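Notes from the 1:1 (GR / supervisor)

We went over the backlog. Supervisor wanted to see one worked example end to end before approving the batch request, so GR pasted a single chain during the call. The sequence is below; no edits were made to it. Supervisor asked that the structure be written out right there so they could see what the output format looks like.
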Amino acid sequence: AADKIRLIPQDFFAELCEQIIQHLNHKIPGINTAELCQRIQTSGVDINTGDLAKIANTLSFLFSTAARNNLSTEELVTTLGSGIGTLPKHAVQVIRHVWNEQGKAIAVSEDAGNMATVGQFVDMKWKLGVAMSSDTCRSLKYPYVTVTLTVADPSGQITDKSFEMTIPQFKNFFRQFKEMASVLETV
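Structure output shown during the call:
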C-alpha cells in the first residue's frame, strides 16, 4: 500500500483521510473510491479503484485502531514511524494533521462497531423500460423496472447493485415497502 500511497498527490490523500474520519464519525455513509479514483486518474496518476480501496481500508483500520487505543497525535506518528518505515513523508504529514484536527472526535462505542458489520443503504434509483425486440424474438414489448441500490459496505466503500424486475415483481417489491412504512409509523 505504501508504494501506491506515494503516487497519490497530497491534496487527494488529505481528502481521502478526511472522508475516512467523517465515515468513522458516522457523518457520511461511506467513501466513494470510484469517484475519487477517477479524479486522481484525471490528474495524471496511474492508480486503479482496487488499490485505492485497499488504501482506504488500511487508513480506516489505522484511524479506528488509534481511536480505540486513545492515541495522541505524537503516539500515532511514532507508531507509524516504527511500524511502517516506508510510508511517504507527505502521507505522514497529512495523517498527523487530520488526526490532530479531527481524530479525537471519532466515536468508539461497541454499539457502533456492531452496527457497522451490516453496511448502510445510501440511495436508490429506478427506471422503467420496455424491451422492444431481440435477435430471437421480433416483438417483445415487455416492460421491466431496473433498480440501482447504492450501498456503503462496513469498510465504507460505496458500491452500486443493480437488478431488473418484471412488473408483477415490482408490484410485490412496492407492496413490501408499503408494509415496512406502515410498521415504521407505529414505532
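Supervisor's comment: Residues 1-105 form one domain.
Batch request approved.
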